[in-house]
Design brief:
This protein is an alpha/beta fold. It has 9 helices and 7 strands. The strands form 2 sheets. Strands 1-4-5-6-7 form a 5-stranded parallel β-sheet. The longest helix has 21 residues.
Length: about 240
């Protein structure tokens, strides 16, 4: 049983044929008994993302993601405690240009009554100054969802892997740089977002995966989880920490 995050190799697709093939493989992966967790990027399954077609892009992507969620619900697995669970789907992030569309697709799809009891996840990239606003929107949605009897959600907190690329692209095209200019700023924002995530009123509605290779960041999450009010949810908070640590 592959319980780790599984994503198909490859990044942005270059045409509809490649996008369809990648999407088909994700649907097939959900049927595999040895896979219970996948990550997908919208740019990896949909080749027609255009700013002037935002609403059409969102509608088509919502339909595609909904189909993957249905597969995840239909093909359950038995977890380590012997419970039958739906497979987990995480919406990953890559280029800044797709960040807000990814969040819109995530929230709109999960707003359907069909997925009220399904728990899914999404990535937040700490190297974006926009990250706190995106996190706030996610937490607001998660709290409303849980208050209405729905399942909690999960936020995978990462620092971001495309800092240099975003710097270069924005410079070449004369755009405002969408990321923090230094790793120090990105690291500081990561800790700030972690503080917010681990507040009791937030963690109950939206669990957090502490996705970092930095031992200090992981240790900080452990220290926050040691606070008495959070002891009962410590296992969920640290769910993605490297097993060897």
């Amino acid at each position: 049983m592959l319980s780790e995050d599984n994503g198909l190799l490859g990044e942005v697709v270059l045409g509809d044929g490649e996008a369809h093939n990648r999407y088909k493989h994700y649907l097939e992966a959900m049927e595999e008994p040895d896979i219970n967790y996948i990550s997908i990027k919208i740019s990896g399954i949909y080749a027609q993302i255009r700013p002037l077609s935002y609403e059409q892009n969102k509608k088509e992507l919502c339909d595609m993601v909904a189909a993957i969620y249905r597969k995840a619900i239909a093909h359950t697995y038995i977890d380590y405690k012997g419970r039958m669970r739906a497979k987990f789907v995480n919406l990953d992030m890559e280029e800044y240009k797709d960040v807000h569309l990814t969040m819109d697709v995530f929230i709109e799809t999960l707003s359907s009554p069909e997925f009220k009891d399904y728990s899914a996840g999404i990535v937040i990239q700490a190297y974006l100054p926009d990250a706190e606003g995106l996190q706030a929107r996610l937490l607001e949605f998660a709290k409303e969802r849980v208050a209405g009897g729905g399942a909690s959600l999960k936020m995978r907190l990462v620092k971001g892997a495309n800092l240099q690329m975003e710097n270069v692209v924005s410079s070449l095209r004369g755009w405002e740089n969408p990321v923090y200019r230094s790793k120090v700023e990105a690291d500081a924002n990561y800790m700030h977002l972690l503080d917010i995530s681990l507040q009791p009123e937030n963690i109950k509605a939206c669990q957090v995966d502490v996705a970092s290779h930095n031992y200090f960041s992981i240790a900080y999450a452990y220290l926050l989880a040691e606070k008495p009010v959070w002891t009962k949810i410590r296992e969920k908070i640290i769910s993605s920490v490297t097993p060897s640590i």
